[in-house]
Amino acid sequence: MARVKVVLREPVSKLGEAGETVTVAGGYARNFLIPRGLAVAATKGNVRQAETFAARQSAKAAREQADANALKARLEAQPLRLTANAGPDGRLFGSITNAAVADAISRTYDLEIDRHAIELAEPIRHLGMHEVRVNLPAEVTAVVTVEAVEG
Questions:
Q1: Domain 69-150 maps to which CATH number in 3.40.50.620, 3.30.450.40, 3.30.750.80, 3.10.430.100?
Q2: Domain map (residue ranges) of the chain
Q3: Per-residue pLDDT of the chain (151 residues; tens, 9 = 90+)
Q4: In which order are the strands placed within the sheet that holds 80-84?
């Protein structure tokens, strides 16, 4: 059975990521990968193009990682204050949800964070300090301190 080298144009499960040069069975390349546009033959030009693509992707990933770490440091620098009405025992009338935290981050830091990226085990129902996890791009997680105060 003849084996051929191909350059992947898109990620293929159990085979590799986009830009990688892999060796596969000739029939698999000829009948599946190439017709679906998932791979191209590994010519000198295609290999060089894949290397350039991989270098660009690596630089882009490094920039995204640095931006996410800077954003994490900015979010963790100071507590986020949210005002809410509360009873004499410190229990809130209502609760502070992940959408309220996202809105407060938007107002305070002038950046958009999706409410689904904010992890709350349960809504905040008491005054005081609470830690909230915020999932940022590049798989960076910030732990933001939310301070619920009487307002």
A1: 3.10.430.100
A2: 3-65, 69-150
A3: 699 999 999 999 999 998 899 999 999 999 999 999 999 999 999 999 999 988 998 999 999 999 999 999 999 999 999 999 999 999 999 999 999 999 999 999 998 999 999 999 899 999 999 999 999 999 999 999 999 999 8
A4: 80-84, 140-150, 128-136, 118-119
Residue from 29, 32, 7 nearest 18 by CA: 7
Q: Which fold has domain 3-65?
A: Ribosomal Protein L9; domain 1 (3.40.5)
C-alpha–C-alpha distance, residues 39 and 120, integer Å: 42
Burial of 33: CB neighbours in 10 Å, binned 0-12, 13-18, 19+? buried
